[in-house]
Every structure is written in structure tokens, then in C-alpha cells.
Amino acid sequence: MCRDIDIKRQLKFLLLLSLVFFTARTEANELNGKALLCKEERSGINRDYGLVFGDGTVSKWFVVGYQKKQQYTLPYNLSGTNLVKWQRIFEDRNLLFRETLRHVHIGAFGSKQYGTCDLSSKEQIFRKFDEIISAAKKKNKI
Fold this sequence. Notes:
- The chain is of the alpha+beta class.
- The protein folds into 2 domains: about 1-30; about 30-140, Lipocalin (Beta Barrel).
- The chain has helices at about 1-30, 120-140, and strands at about 35-40, 50-55, 55-65, 65-75, 75-80, 85, 95, 100-105, 110-120.
- The chain starts with a helix and ends with a helix.
């Protein structure tokens, strides 16, 4: 009888532990599979870039010349319900405000760049980049 109670307690403990672990893992990965198409807001420059979330990381993509380039892939952290953060060690950091989809890049020396984003997918981002590349090729005569 005493052994049955111990086994029941152990099973309840394992169930509770697995529930806590699963809930924490789900919360940390709720952005996985999502993507944003953003426009950099710098004076005179309107450059499109993409933020793609997957496996607990965020990747930044943009167009250079006639190619799609991945600038980085970094782990992200959720801060409360409205903020996503990621950064390179001892370098620039990034903030994404989830309610407004506003992206702020803060450089190593405090300079700030802003981006306005829309919900998208990795495929849609790459399609947009293909359009940008195609338009650039049509403009050039050689």
C-alpha cells in the first residue's frame, strides 16, 4: 500500500515536470516558422530586408548586388509579451516590438536604425528579393 502511494507521487511529479518543460519549450519557440518583410528607414535609403524565425533563432536576409545574402543567424529571447531581443556578443543588438512590428537595430556605439515590418513568409521574402534583383538587372545596360 505504501509503495503504491510512492509510485503515484512519483508519477504525478514526472507528469508535472514534463508539463512545465513542454510549456516552457512551446513559449520559447512561438515565433518559429514566422517571418517579417521589413523596410529600413534611413534618410535616402529604403532597403528591404527579411527576418526569419526558426529553431529559436532569427536570420536576417537582404539583397546585395544580384544575390540574396544572409547577414546573421542568432538566438532570440522573448522579453515580456511585447518585445523580442537578439544580439551578437559585445556588438550590436536588436529589438522587435511585437505589437507594432517595429524593428530597432542599435549599433555597438549607440547609433540606431529603424525598420517597419509586415508579416510575411520566407518564400514571400525571397520572391520580393527576386523582384528587386530583376528590376535592378533591367535598369542596367551592361
